[in-house]
Write a structure and sequence with these properties.
Nucleotidyltransferase, domain 5, 4-stranded mixed β-sheet, Carb_kinase_FGGY, Carbohydrate kinase, 7-stranded mixed β-sheet, kinase, globular, 19 helices, transferase, FGGY_N
Length: 514
Amino acid sequence: MSQLRHAVLGIDAGTTAVKATVLTTEGRELATTRTSVHVERPGPGWAEQSMHDVWHAVTDTVRRALDAAGEVEVVAVGVTGQGDGAWLLDENHEPAGPAVLWLDGRAADRVREWERDGRAAAIRRITGSTLFPGALPVLLEELEATRPELLANARHQANCKDWIRLRMTGVLATDASEASRTYVDTSTGAYSAELIDALGHRRFATLLPPIVPAGAHRPLTDAAAAALGLPAGIPVVTGLVDTAAGGVGLGVSTPGQAYAIIGTTAFLGTVHATAADVRTDVGITLSTGQDGEVLECLCPMSGTPNLDWVRDLLGRRSRSWDAIEAEARTVPPGAGGVLYLPYGAQAGERAPFTDPHASAGWLGLSTETTPAQLLRAVYEGLALSLRECQEALGVGGTLRLCGGAATSGLLCQILADFTGCTVERASAGELGARGVAAHALAAVSGIDVPTAAARLLGELDVFRPDPGVREVCDAQFATFVAVRDALRPRWPDLRALRTAGGGLSLSDNHKELA
């Protein structure tokens, strides 16, 4: 009888889907499966999930992945998942109520109150991140006021991946990256008594789980093993929050390295040796738990919806993305002088600047502007936004890339040309799951996490900047920033006109022009 292949399992519990990836310990992908998870909207701006539904999605996804992988022996497991929100548990480690997710907006008014009274500034100073409605501290206060029965039953806080690992091991713990946007001083990776006191939240301190290293592991229980179809006793590592896990999966783990994700939203992050190296005041700072290192991230709202929109707008919905790219490639860099501001999200923009009124638009049009120029301008607009993030973070050299839009060779080359970085695109998928699988592999193999991550990552496609177009790209970027900044004071007016929609009537001053 032949010996079973050894494999590691990575689980990524995202907001709308749970994914599971099985990889041999040599790095070959054997199977990837996914299960959708429903987000409940029981009130205006609310976003909740059943914790038990998430766990059932995990068991279903893992079982199907194991079936697809064939004859393997899983030797270790890693878990990542969506961050932030409030996943509150009772004294028996059962859900005190539904999980309140990171995208929940019920605490928006309280955020504005904290911005006025200085508590948001305290959070920024100590955690290195900006306050938003889905952050745990402001959610706890909001739930205490509006759902007192939930807080009365709560004894523990567990983020998404921590809840899953609790069900797998019976042990509740979190890691420094996950805890960074709660009450953590990211310069130390530990909870900050100063911040807890500044917020007046001493009463919530007992909810917080212990912080342990991402690679710390506990054995899979008999009950969880039976539910998942895995061997009992194998190690389950603590893991990382999804954005940090994606960086590990891409092989980005040392100071100065950077990576980008272009999906529904965009992301650009870089590793710093210490929190003192953080460069912006609108980003997210995550402690890595590694000798004071931090991950500084900027997360523009601009992403693939811009491309979906322009495809539909120009009547090309039935065409393949290869055909759309081919059309955009007929236009040289600079898009014939057409600029695109990629701020199409209803929520405005959040990085590298914050403006809820930000609006998208083309600039530099004429009656000779072609559809191909409009297409290329949108691709370039995404790259221009990320170049602005790149300059804010001080990133240069090489940029690792993943995400749905990374499948576009055109976008990868445009990003290389506009940033001046060599872009290395991961051909592998599910980088978050691979990142925590790397921690799992390190736990059982004796190799370090960067070596494990490189083994699991596989091949990279390389796109080098074309020095022949650098002057055009630099001019385009300078004009992009200048024109955008000139328009910003009028964005509230444009947003008001859009909100009013077709209900506006021409004023007397404009009727004569109609």
